[in-house]
Amino acid sequence: MARILVTGGTGYIGSHTTVELMQQGYEVTIVDNLSNSSIDVLDGIAAIVGRKPEFANIDCGNFVDLDNVFKQYPDIVGVIHFAASKAVGESVEKPLLYYRNNIGSLVTLLEVMQLHKVQNLVFSSSCTVYGQPDAKHLPVDETAPIQKALSPYGNTKQINEEIITDAAHADSDLHATILRYFNPIGAHPSAHIGELPNGVPQNLLPFVTQTAAGLRPELKVFGDDYNTPDGSCIRDYIYVVDLAKAHVKAIDRMLHAKDREQVEIFNLGTGTGLSVLTLIREFEAATGQKIPYTIVGRREGDIEQVWAAPKRANEVLGWKADTPIRDVLASAWKWEKHIRNIK
Ligand code: NAD
Ligand code: WQD
């Protein structure tokens, strides 16, 4: 069976995608430098799938090491590129680290793929490339305008998309699928893998589950004075397992579809926007855990509201994010209890 190289595969979305790939019969080799994940994730994957994927602890920016992986696995037919630094706030403080890592690893990967005639790339992009869409562009589809990035992190995603497009223009053999994720949340239902944020969580749901677990005294809600129904920001929260399944669909399409274009872009969201305050209420209803919170000032750089129009992914990939939100939130709580040994 075909082998897929998953860069950043011990990370949050990469590990869930590796599980889905292996369960669909693909062989997987993960490359990861463990800068934001643990090698123990391989055990979690094995607990679900029954065996570990192949693994190489390397930096995608290291040409020789990456070249050696492709030499070791000549049956690689496609790559899913998750490896990147992804903390928006950190990217403002350390822009050069983000440009070196996120741009450098993609350029190196494309060079090594070309050397080994591996022609299929799935790239992790983000709805952050849209910035705050105008009201007329909500829900946001793939034709919505790309707006000036609000952070170096978001800029690396925009630059990476341009690099991929230019590389494909120069090399007709390269095929790429750019997946723009909205807000991935939750954990595998087995609770063997999930999100492991470093330090104080920046993202909403990990902070909510840590508050429920008693690690945080309360949640701070960053503003309730936005122009939304309840004043809090709206996002499109997509179950990480549904998101992982979209990657398998994208790989399947690249390997087998006759009607694919050279570069295809898909928004991956549920198509439903949820406010911060609604998510809190849904979490409480799903888990029975009360979440103490205080409304504080807005967080710099936050956009007011964004949610996807997933029609293209639904129709072309034959994929839909349809897990009920309360099941998703319950999966996050089950994972938090697992990692904190809470019964
Ligand atoms: P993550 O940090 O959990 O996973 C990224 C993995 O890549 C980590 O295991 C890290 O160790 C590894 N890595 C980083 N740089 C590397 C390098 N140079 N060489 C090898 N390994 C490297 O992040 P995630 O949430 O799983 O995100 C995966 C991808 O999806 C990223 O590209 C991110 O920008 C993108 N994305 C994430 C979100 C989100 O909310 N999580 C939203 C949109 C897009
Ligand atoms: C969601 C909402 C906050 C924490 C970020 C990145 C984006 C992507 C996904 C990588 C916002 C509010 C949050 C808290 C809060 N990452 N919030 N209290 O900002 O939509 O997207 O992660 O690609 O690029 O920007 O997600 O989970 O940080 O915030 O009130 O303690 O929750 O203000 O409205 P965001 P988030």
Description of the structure:
The chain has 343 residues and is an alpha/beta fold. The chain has a domain at 3-185 and 238-271: 3-Layer(aba) Sandwich (Rossmann fold), CATH 3.40.50.720. It has eleven helices and 13 strands. It has helices spanning 12-23, 41-49, 63-72, 88-93, 95-115, 152-170, 204-212, 240-256, 276-287, 311-317, 325-339, and strands at residues 3-7, 27-31, 54-56, 76-81, 120-126, 175-181, 183-185, 219-222, 234-235, 237-239, 263-268, 274-275, 293-296. The chain starts with a strand and ends with a helix. The site of nicotinamide-adenine-dinucleotide has 29 residues, from helix 1, helix 5, strand 5 and strand 7.
| End-to-end distance | 40 Å
User: What proportion of the residues is helical, as a percent range?
Assistant: 25-40%
Mean pLDDT: 97
Number of strands: 13
Secondary-structure element string: EHEHEHEHHEHEEHEEEHEEHEHH
Query: SS-based structural class?
Result: alpha/beta
The whole-angstrom Rg is 19 Å
* Overall outline: globular
- CATH architecture annotation of the domain at 3-185 and 238-271: 3-Layer(aba) Sandwich
CATH topology of the domain at 3-185 and 238-271: Rossmann fold
Number of helices: 11
CATH class of the domain at 3-185 and 238-271: Alpha Beta
- Widest β-sheet, arrangement of strands: 3-2-1-4-5-6-11
Strand content: 15-25%
CATH-level-4 superfamily name of the domain at 3-185 and 238-271:
NAD(P)-binding Rossmann-like Domain
Spans of at least 5 consecutive residues with low confidence = none
Q: What composes the largest sheet?
A: 7 strands, parallel
- Which ions, cofactors or small ligands are bound in this entry? nicotinamide-adenine-dinucleotide, UDP-4-deoxy-4-formamido-beta-L-arabinopyranose
